[in-house]
Amino acid sequence: MSIELKDEARRQAQICNSCRYCEGFCSVFPAMHRERMFADGDITQLANLCHNCQNCFHACQYTAPHEFDINLPQILAKLRQESWEDHAWPRGMGKAFHRNGTLIAVAAIVGVALLFWAARSLPAGGEGFYAVMSHNVMIAIFLPAFILPLVSLAVGLRGYWRTVGGTRIQISDITEAFGSAAKMRNLSGGHGEGCNFEDEDRFSQRRRVLHQMVMYGFLLCFASTSSGTILHYVFDMPAPYSLLSLPKLLGVSGGVILSLGTLGMMWLKTRGIPSLTDERVRGGEFGFILLLFMVSTTGLLLYLAGGTPLLESMLVVHLGAVLAFFLLTPFSKMAHGFYRLAALIRDAQVKRDNDVVTGSAGAEARLGKSMRQ
């Protein structure tokens, strides 16, 4: 992580600590105000707690042309980006994707789709998709592509956890972090009015809603795949499934929500203020959104193409998009969800530890008072 960026973040954090005007905006400021000096791990933790809602920038009286030149959303965005790249494994892949994400995403989808097109010549058998490509071939391709990114993410998150000084996790830390992530609490603004991401004078919940659509749409699609796997292996009910089956209900609804959410995110990205983000990785952000959009939209088109001559070609494109998404997950912005969840867990830990210290100090004070009486 750049020494210059860390020093600049420390300078701005110390000024924010003196002002405290933005204390109620999100988790960053309470976490910041618990510290007096900021180690490298503290700065990394603050960067990953930030959701870049930009409310603090528009509320700040010390932004340019003031000599303090505060731009906390941008400096934290740059540090957050470098923390993902530093902890990515293999390390160089993170930087490559975030600098050239759209090109890499398109090349990966096309390249993998061509491999699947070639794999059509392997023996198949079955109905629906399995008439084009056998179940065993799909498993042989996707299982390593699913496991390897998980290993890569685990290595990166382990390094991040050490950097921020994480300790043993308790169930309460996880539940608090998941509760915050599920509600996108840090995108609701200090008073629940939302972000002024698009316009400094107007608050909106649009960014929060679109993030929730992407997250829940993806989770529904994942649940669809999981339920299909259970039906196949546990109940000996292989695909294809009817529209009213659990895999189809979850998959179609999740695909629609995810497609609309990613389209909305692309549109919203064009309306943001580049100077409040890390402009170096704009291609990577659009590349990540494009991957998710392709996964969801080709999945819906594949369902509509069932029983038509388009089934074969749509299956190849969809499998190419899905496999490219999995392979690039540790290096795309998809990783930010894992790091942000880790940051929220660490924040819950620190708050819990502070409550214990405060409670102990209060108990000692009450005991001392009772003894004096």
Automatic annotation (TrEMBL):
| TM spans (from-to) | 101-119, 139-161, 213-235, 247-268, 288-305, 311-331
Task: Please indicate if the UniProt record lists Transmembrane as a keyword.
Answer: yes
Q: Which UniProt keywords apply?
A: Membrane, Transmembrane, Transmembrane helix
Ion transport as a keyword? no
InterPro entries linked to this entry: Citrate_utilization_prot_B, NarG-like_sf
Protein name, as recorded: Tricarballylate utilization 4Fe-4S protein TcuB
Q: Which gene encodes it?
A: tcuB
